[in-house]
Design goal:
Elements: H1 8-31, H2 33-52, H3 56-66, H4 70-93, H5 115-129, H6 133-139, H7 145-173, H8 180-184, H9 186-211, H10 223-226, H11 231-243, H12 249-267, H13 274-287
Helix pairs in contact: 1-2, 2-6, 2-12, 3-4, 4-9, 4-12, 6-7, 7-13
Length: 301
């Protein structure tokens, strides 16, 4: 992607969308500040995901198939940032985690055997679809039809979950919630988590370096590169890089980690995707006239 806007209408449409988004935030903030915060954070998350092409399935699949680890390293970097940010926030909620209390809004899911087959099945489906649920949300806007099919399938699956929840969720919800600070305290839990993430990061770097043997050479210096651009030209180039060009995956991962921490601070809950899509599914099935059960918050979503 070169970042060049070929159609002026695209620039006009983008400007109109930006002004409309700001207007909605101002209007909603007058009656529902929390909802306005969700709106602004959602726009920031979506824009970051779109520009960095951030996708969990491509991070793992590209590394497994081609040893291309830039996206996977970005995912790890985002997790490191979130770990540090969440630790400060959660410590404010629960100073002594040994009591067993879990911070409000924390995504701490029941831990059990079901995670292995569910993770394998879900991962297989993401690879077939070519994107994760998060990736499907911004790829739909780019015309990726398979992402739309994947999202519709997820909505149907969430509906099946709502209708069959009572058959199996009681057993799953009774499983223990493994939260490291409860067992090791804050310092050890945070250091251990970061150590595991950094070890995984170094493993990705090592395996990637073995797969790709690049030859570094000095880039040729052209006459145009010797001419220093004016400030206006620099500003225009920077705007194109930020708005229309693709961002490095690492920048997206770190920024998402920061935004996730900010989300937890402002609205008392981290960023979630599947839980919100579950609500979308409920709306769709209610619109179709089906008696959908009420949503029960599921930890980890």
């Amino acid at each position: 992607m070169t970042g060049k806007v070929k159609n002026p209408l695209m620039l006009i449409a983008g400007f109109v969308a930006l002004v409309s988004a700001i207007a909605v935030a101002i209007l909603v903030n007058q009656s529902a500040p929390r909802l306005a915060a969700f709106w602004i954070l959602g726009l920031m998350f979506g824009f970051t995901l779109s520009r960095s092409r951030f996708c969990f399935v491509s991070g793992f699949s590209n590394f497994y198939l081609f040893r291309e680890g830039e996206m996977l390293k970005a995912i790890i970097a985002g997790m490191v940032v979130s770990t540090i940010g969440f630790a400060f926030i959660m410590h404010g909620w629960v100073n002594d985690p040994s009591t067993g209390a879990i911070p409000p809004g924390a995504h701490v899911s029941p831990f059990g055997w079901y995670l292995l087959p569910a993770g394998l099945l879900f991962g297989f489906g993401m690879v077939i679809a070519g994107c994760c649920i998060t990736g499907s949300l911004y790829r739909i806007s780019g015309g990726y039809i398979y992402a739309l099919i994947a999202l519709i399938s997820v909505l149907l699956g969430m509906g099946a979950f709502l209708f069959t929840r009572e058959l199996w969720w009681s057993d799953v919800s009774s499983l223990p919630q493994i939260w490291l600070p409860k067992y090791f305290g804050w310092p050890v839990a945070v250091i251990f988590t970061i150590f595991i993430l950094l070890a995984f990061y170094l493993l990705v770097v090592f395996l990637q370096s073995r797969r790709f043997k690049t030859v570094h050479s000095e880039p040729a210096t052209s006459i145009t590169s010797m001419v220093k651009p004016h400030f206006a030209a620099k500003l225009k180039s920077l705007a194109k890089q930020l708005i229309t060009a693709s961002w490095p995956a690492m920048a997206g991962g770190i920024l998402l980690g920061v935004l996730n921490t900010l989300c937890y601070v402002l609205v008392d809950r981290p960023w979630g995707v599947t839980g919100e899509i579950q609500r979308w599914s409920q709306i769709v099935f209610k619109f179709a006239g089906l008696p959908v059960p009420e949503i029960i918050p599921v930890p980890g979503t």
